[in-house]
Amino acid sequence: MRRIAHISDLHFGRTDPAAVEGLAAELNRDRPDLVIASGDFTMRAHIREYEEARAFLARLTAPVIAVPGNHDITPFRLWERFLHPFRRYRRYIAAETEPLFQDEEIAVLCLNTVRTWAPERDWSQGKITRAQIRRTEARLAALPPQLFRIVVGHHPFMPPPWDEEARLVGRADEALAAFQRHGVGLTLAGHLHRGYSRVVMPQPSGEPKAEIDVSEARASPQHLLAVQAGSATSTRLRGNEPNAYNRIRIEDGVATVQVRLWTGTDWCDAAESGSTRCATEE
Ligand SMILES: [Fe+2]
Ligand SMILES: [Fe+2]
Hints:
Bound molecules: fe (ii) ion
CATH class: Alpha Beta
CATH architecture: 4-Layer Sandwich
Structural class: alpha/beta
Order of helices and strands: EHEHEHHEEHEHEEEEEEEE
Distance between the termini: 32 Å
Number of domains: 1
Largest sheet: 7 strands, mixed
Number of helices: 6
Strand content: 15-25%
Helix content: 10-25%
């Protein structure tokens, strides 16, 4: 059994200090086996924001694995953005932008979905390249077969159940099909600042397709569970969702997700998947 804390979109530079303190305290009390951070550590990739993010991560007792988000490369210094986009990320967060975590039970493979430029006005959207998919397939194929496989990216692989047209990471369908071919059981992402979980059923054509929105958010060994986290500490909240993170349990090849919500003073279990109310509320 493995216990994972999935945190995302911390956005140092625009955080709620109480939520930051509360998150550090909760994670160090809960002692997960691994903390997975799915990007957007900063607002504008400023050094002081990165320093705050690094100080936060240094306080955590659990090991941390992370990917960058679109906010983690500078929108101002274009030379840096094009020539060395991840220099600050590598200095303050992690040397690798696509690290791999592996123990006797799980493998966590990270994908950098951030684009330094795009042939459109909006450069915040993410993409997976064909080369990245090929590389990921090779990395997945090389893993011991018994490991529960998790893929992490910043941009969403599946849309929210209430907005099927939401923009996904580029080549999401191709990537999901490749993940399923290699037995990936769980994907983790952020970016939307909304938390939800969806089951992706394998299709005979090889094309992945969303089927059911499971209330208890479980994945069986045949299904892939696509999980999104809200923003753990940022004041940039969307859709009346409070700050939140995901507490994930991997046992017997099955992932179970419990969303944890910030009440302003403490964390509580969300009543159900997609709910913004605590389980203990009337
Ligand atoms: Fe974000
Ligand atoms: Fe983002």
